[in-house]
Design brief:
Length: 69
């Protein structure tokens, strides 16, 4: 089994970008019916779960056998 070794800075930058994007979309109400406030609990949940799921996807991608073209 192969384990990906991404840079911790890369994970932190991606997580910050995702949390910032979610915060802006929720605050402006871009995809919702009405603009809402910021929900810090939801943003913290996104900040915790995003790196875990992205690492899981990287782990799966590192261990998939590639089919030659």
């Amino acid at each position: 089994m192969k384990f990906p070794t991404p840079s911790p800075f890369e994970y932190a930058a991606r997580t910050a970008l995702v949390v910032l994007t979610v915060a802006v979309v929720r605050y402006t109400g871009f995809l919702l019916d009405e603009p809402g406030g910021l929900d810090p609990v939801f943003l913290a949940l996104v900040a915790v779960t995003y790196p875990a799921f992205s690492y899981l996807l990287a782990l799966i991608a590192a261990n998939v056998k590639r089919v030659p073209e």
